[in-house]
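Subject — a protein and its fold
Fields — amino acid sequence, structure tokens
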Amino acid sequence: MAAPMSNPTSEQPGGVRKPIVVKKYANRRLYNTATSSYVTLDDLARMIKEGGDFVVYDAKTGEDLTRSVLTQIIVEQEQKGQNLLPISFLRQLISFYGDSMQFLVPGYLEQAMIAFAKNQEQMRNTLRATFGIFPFGQFEEMGKQNIALFERALQLLSPYAREGKPAAAEPSATAGEAAEDPRLKRLEAQIEALREQLEALGRGRQQS
């Protein structure tokens, strides 16, 4: 049984916090070097929820396994029934692997999640301001709007889904070639417009 994780991040001199180093062994066990104990994916998920951070390295080769471990945590949470990712979102996301627009997806999703986190913080501020009265209606509406924005973002990032990919199109267009594509310029304008909508939504929450 894994020991509890008492220290979410490693405290360094000067108050600077660094991610905890977790080593993954060949038997798939995860070792927290800060607490000198073995941990589980649930422990790592709890660390993130508590505001901590970590990086995972292969104990033998030193390879960075952080991305794959984070993905495993998401898969495990989804299998437990805590579904955050709509099926349509997952299908659209999968369709971008190998697509010439793939390089745009990570940055856009990161910005979309930042906007979502701002809305979440606004909701928490509302909770504190109303002395524990939970704004169910506001939360539900906020969730619907954010999910709709996520799904619309993927649709905007996939102009080929509307227009159809040409049969003679090069399967692996480079970022430089894509930059000359007028469709990319139109896509960038659409993304910028959507970003402004997200910011306007956040300002509207703060003023309400």
Remarks:
- Helices lie at 41-49, 66-79, 87-95, 105-129, 136-156, 159-163, 175-179, 182-207.
- The two ends are 48 Å apart (CA to CA).
- The CA atoms of residues 62 and 174 lie 31 Å apart.
- The longest strand covers residues 20-24.
